[in-house]
Amino acid sequence: MPVRIRLQRHGKKGKPFYWIVAADVRAKRDGKFLEKLGTYNPNTNPATIDLKIDNSVKWLQNGAQPSDTAKKILSYKGVLLKHHLLGGVAKGALTEEQAEEKFTAWLEEKGKSIAVKTDGLDKAKADARSKALEAEKEVNDKRIASNVVEEEVVEETAEAATEEVAETVVEAATEEAAPVAEEAKEEAAPSTEEE
Fold it and tell me: How far is residue 103's CA from residue 101's CA, in Å, rounded to a whole number?
């Protein structure tokens, strides 16, 4: 029975989540599998990969062939390197201790490079956040400045309007009061003449 190490899709539409499985070649993509070797989540940055390295190496030693994507994932996690080093141990080129030292040194270097990438991503997020805050502050300052100018214009127009209204009221009052005052003078004048 030929065995293939491949991805089995899970998750929802637009948010894939994969299991890394050892399955029979004839099985459906999301069907029956022999062993679950790990998970792969491409939705995070960097992608989250959880893999059982020893079980994956065992399947490779037994003749399982990885798919293209699974091969890249296995290489990224060091499974292919460990398989290669164990092949050297079987041929007598290396001792198990030397192979384990090489593998741990490679894992340390890989961990450092991943940490650098993660720090770079965190720094980029922080820079983007600070730039967004600065842009928002500029917009708010402009908005406040325009509101102050609008308030001054409103106050000036309100003062002008109140002055115009006051003048209009005074004019209207004087116009209304003028005939009344003339009538009062006319009424008062004959009474003084009669005496």
Answer: 5
